Amino acid sequence: MTDVTFILRDGSREVVDIAEGMSVMQGAILNDVRGIDGECGGCLSCATCHVYVESLEAGELPPMGEDENGLLDGVAAERRPNSRLGCQLLAAPGLKGLVVRVPERQV
Amino acid sequence: MISQKQNDLYTRVGPGTPCGTLLRRYWQPVALVDEFAGKRQVKAVRLLGENFVLFRDAAGRYGMLDRDCPHRNADLSFGRLEHGGLRCPFHGWLFDADGNCLETPAEPVGSTLCKKVRQKAYPTEVRSGVVFAYIGPGTPPAFPELDCFAAPDSHTFAFKGLWECNWLQSLEVGMDPAHASFLHRFFEDEDPEASYGKQFRSTTFDTDLPITRVLREYDRPEIGVTPVDHGLRLTTLRRIDEAQTHVRVTNIVFPQAFVIPMSPEVTISQWHVPVDDHNNFWFTIFTSFTGPIDKATMREQRLATYPEPDYRPIRNRSNSWGYDPDEQKAATFLGMGFDINIHDQWACESQGPIQDRTREHLGTSDKGIIAYRRMLSRELERVEKGERPLMCLTPEEAPAMRGPVSYDGVDRSGDVERYWREGDAKRRADAPWGGKVEA
Q: Which of A29, A46, A107 is facing B2, going by the closest CB pair?
């Protein structure tokens, strides 16, 4: 299990314990974190689980694939260097202290 | 994909639930006028998880009351229709269509008990062969002047059927234009002349191509979704070749209906009305823009699969919807016969009593569903804040709520929107009842 911290639009923080193999998007949806839509359920067709990766204490995030990179060009909020799609960030052993910020909008 | 909490928010409609509160702000179809043509003029109605009795009294007035007798709660749908009202068979208490208690015959002479008792009654209205009821707070909204209400009785026909699943998954099939190329695929085209009263079986406007062939051969449609005053407009384009584009314009009329073309002459306006969280009735009004509708044929066709008095389909989960693997190999994509209503019924019922949307994966062709859920979320918030939701119309607003355009045809001009707007306007101008263009 991995603790992931979401910084919400109002600045508050919500920590969600995500099971290994599950994505940051799924963890957010199943725990009703506001501001992550994840409409497509993780099949890389919607770009509504956009997050900004603020920090990571240990471990490595999966590298960005071509599809994710393409979809990030079309996100509703500003794309920044730390933009990722939550559906592509899988909770993995060794991943520690992941903090992601919810963008201003998803659509 | 949505959370369990969000799925509950959208699908649970009992008293006091957020979505139940929203849906109670609208007139709801509760029965067909045809159901009162037989010898029994009293029907049990279950709507949004609540039980009612609907009856037509000797004066022809419809009354919809809470179903449990206010005396000792026996079921009034078994009541005796007599003496200007509905009488409970338990102790003879008599109620009129407004819920007034007229007699309590077991009480001593001179008893005033019946003056103190009132059964809750709900407003009803008949429109185009459907009895609508309003069980929400305050004054009911005004009826929109949609084609299905504006057309005369001769040009409309109403029917209903029970689907054993939640209302939302049933409505969502009506905002998913891509499924028609698969779920409703026939391997051979039928003679369009033999297609009266059936959907997706005729040819369409401005082409000799059977619609079955268009759906079968052009299965990656371009779908456009536009928010409009009545809800959503979906425009589905299938590029046949360089010069020809098949266009289908369909609508969601918020909160619970879709309006789609059945054939060049007839449109379908279909509500999905929750019986409770796990069942819904579809109520359809067919509206003809040309000649009168052959109601006897339409009714006979549909009663063959949805028999009276329950309107529960003869193909259902208990008999695997009549699934035939040989047919699936040779004739249809699904293997459950040629009635597309059954195909949709299978799709929805097979998802389970309430679809588990925490397990779904939506694609780009599901954009209508995504747009609708957003709209539903917004309107649920409005109602929670005490505001008036979309399509809860005032008498001033209602006359402007016309149409909506639903159209199916093949454009060769290259300007698809102009094509369907002009085609629709012409069809309205030619309609004997003077259908007015959407405002």
A: A29
Query: Which of A31, A38, A107 lies closest to B1 in CB terms?
Result: A38
Give the Cα separation of B182 and A61 in Å (integer). Answer: 39
Residue B316, burial from CB neighbour count under 10 angstroms (0-12, 13-18, 19+): middle
B7 falls within a domain: no
From chain B residues 355-414, the ones with a CB under 8 A of any chain A CB are: 358-364, 366, 370, 374
Which CATH number characterizes residue B255's domain?
Answer: 3.90.380.10
| Helix (H) and strand (E) counts in chain A | 2, 5
For B90-109, the pLDDT digits (tens) are 999 999 999 999 999 999 99
CB contact under 8 A, B1 and A31: no
What's the pLDDT tens digit per position in A49-71?
999 999 999 999 999 999 999 99
Confidence of residue B206 (pLDDT cuts 50, 70, 90): confident
Q: Are residues B196 and B244 in the same domain?
A: yes
Q: Are residues B298 and B220 in the same domain?
A: yes
CB B286, CB B160: distance < 8 Å: no
- Categorize the per-residue pLDDT at B370 as very low, low, confident or very high, splitting at 50, 70 and 90: very high
Locate all alpha helices (DSSP H) within B240-385, ordered by sequence.
Answer: 295-303, 325-330, 340-349, 367-384
Same domain, B364 and B234: yes
Domain count, chain A: 1
CA–CA gap between residue A35 and residue B307 (Å, rounded): 47
- In angstroms, the CA B38 to CA B341 distance is 26
Helix or strand or coil: residue B359? helix
Question: Is residue A106 domain-resident?
Answer: no
Question: The domain containing residue B79 runs over which residues?
Answer: 27-133
Q: Do B271 and B382 lie in a common domain?
A: yes
Q: How far apart, in whole angstroms, are the C-alpha atoms of residue B102 and residue B109?
A: 14
What is the value of ipTM here, to two decimals?
0.82
- For residue B193, is pLDDT > 90? no
Domain, as residue range, for A26: 2-101
B193 and B94 share one domain: no
